Each structure stands twice: as structure tokens, then as C-alpha cells.
Amino acid sequence: MTPVIIIGAGIAGLACARRLADAGMAPVVLDKGRGIGGRVATRRAGDLQFDHGAQYVNVHGAGFASVLDGLENAGALAGWADGTGRKHSVGVPGMSALPKALGAGLDVRQNTQVLRLVPDAAGWLLHLADGTLRAESVVVTVPAPQVAALLGSGHPLVAALGAVQIAPCLTLMAAVAAAAPFITRKDTDDPLSWIAQDSAKPGRSQGHGALWVAQAGAAYSAARLEDDPATLTASMLQLLCDRLGVSPATVTHASSHRWRYARVTQPLGQPFLCSDDGSLYLGGDWCLGAHIEAAWDSGTAMAADLLARR
User: Fold this and answer.
1) CATH class of 2-36+103-164+267-308
2) CA–CA distance, 256 with 278 (Å, rounded to integer)
3) Are strands 107-109 and 28-30 parallel, antiparallel or unpaired?
4) Residue 220: half-sphere exposure toward Cβ, Cα within 13 Å
């Protein structure tokens, strides 16, 4: 019997686990993927790398500011001027450095998918693809639309998720052997609503030409969500070449990624949901908003509530 199992090693899950570990507990974090961090991610293709999820992190609250200060002092975070007069913080050497630093020393088990959660006399039974685990308490930090598959559509907490809305986002990663006309370009009315010269971020390799990340807007992402990878890449690459004013012949690498649950457009409006007995928590960025700090706030709040009940 494990005291606390956290499902999902995104920022919310890692923040929750870190707070519990700092209080002397030994939470177990399960994630179905090969990496941690969720959308705070870096994709590698040979010698190339792209921040294909969250592009940067900003801070508003004192608690998260302290976390980022610690990451910066450890060399995992640095400031990035995006060419518009704004300055953001980015992971070094990639955005994945943030979750790696947050998860250091935690018991994180990757490639472990939870299929179903069933309450039992001692807490919860977790059905995995290759066995079962038991936990006194479970913290679920998967995207809100995926919760019903774990708990069943009739669970009382699932009904509260109906108002949460999350939009998809399609991402293109490209290496272009041509001069870069800008560092970033943001236009919410354009099919490519965000274009960033990823190789201009601090700590990135400069030996492969300009590396670009382009993220599609809401309408384009919804319309093309089910395109096959080759079709999607070709479509987005033509748009990127047009915006950069370059020939497709200058492109040396191109690939795409679909984030099915990327942008929180209607958050829950509170840090988390919890069962009456305090044995089940639901949280994530979808509780508070579409930014990394929202995920950290939700995860930290769940841990604080769980500790207060013990």
C-alpha cells in the first residue's frame, strides 16, 4: 500500500510530489509517457532540438517566483529576450530542463499507464496495463477530458468537469538554412499564431541554421487535428515558409506534433477538486488557466490540502 500515488508527471504532478516529498512523504508518480513535464517539453531529432510545447515561463506569485529563482541559480533557467522588448524565462538547454529539475530525486515511474481507478476498503486500486497498485490517496493530474476514462462517467467529481474547456494546438518544428527575419512573431488571427526562432534562446546550439517552432491558432488546430503527420507537416511548413519569406528548398528538417489538450480556454475556477474523504484529488492547469504557473499552483495546493488532512 502506497500512501500517495500521483497520476501524471506534468508540472502539476511534479509540484504536488515535490511538496509532499519536502514534507517527509514518499509519493509515487506514474506517467504513461517516456518523458516528464507534459507540455513543458523538448523534442530532439538527431542533433536538433525544439521546445515544441510551452515556449517560455512567466511568473506572477511569490511562491512560484522562488521556485524559478532556484532553477535559475542551478543553471536550469535563463532569461530570453523575444525581440519585442519582452523578456521571458526558458529552460536551459531546453524547456524540459524545468520538469527534470523539479522531478530530481522523486520516485517517477515512466511508461506506466493507469487504465482505471477503483475505490476499495483501504483507499484505491489502480489497474495498470501490466498489473495493479494500491494507494491510500490518489492525485490525478491528467487533462480534464481524460478523467472520466479513469473514474467512470458517473463519478460525482466528473460532473464538475463539464464546464472546463481545452483546445488543441498543432506544432511544427523546422530547421531552415536561411537568414532569420525575426525572433518571434505573434498574430492570433493568423493560422500560425506563434512563430519562434527556437535556436535564438539561451543555451541552444547555433550550428544548424535557424530552428523554428510554429504553433497553429485555435481554428487551424481544430480543423486539422486529425490530419496524418505527413499531411499536417506539409501544410504547416508551407505556411511557415511564406511567413519567413524562404523557399521550401532551404528546409533541412520538418516534423509536426499534435497537442490534443493544449490550451485551457475555460478553467475550472478553483485550484482542485477533492472527494469528501480526501482520498482523491483532481487538478492541473485546467483548474486555473493556460500557463505553467497555474499547473504549479494547482499541484502545490493539492499537496497542502492533503498534508493538512493527515
Assistant:
1) alpha beta
2) 41
3) parallel
4) 21
Q: What is the 3-state secondary structure (H, E, C) of 258-295?
A: EEEEEEEEECCCCCEEECCCCCEEEECHHHCCCCHHHH
This prediction has a pTM of 0.96
pLDDT under 70: residue ranges of the chain: none
Question: Which residue, among 269, 275, 267, has the nearest Cα to 306 in the 3D structure?
Answer: 275
Q: What is the pLDDT of residues 2-16, one digit of tens each?
A: 999 999 999 999 999
3-state secondary structure of 305: helix
Collapsed DSSP state (helix, strand, coil) of residue 251: strand
Name the residue ranges covered by the structural domains of the chain. Answer: 2-36+103-164+267-308, 166-265
User: What CA–CA distance (Å, rounded) separates 23 from 142?
Assistant: 24
β-bridge mates for residue 255, sequence order: 173
Fold assignment, 166-265: Polyamine Oxidase; Chain A, domain 2 (3.90.660)
Q: Which three cell numbers stand for residue 169?
A: 494546438
| Rounded Cα distance, 124 and 114, in Å | 12
Residue type at 259 in one-letter notation: W
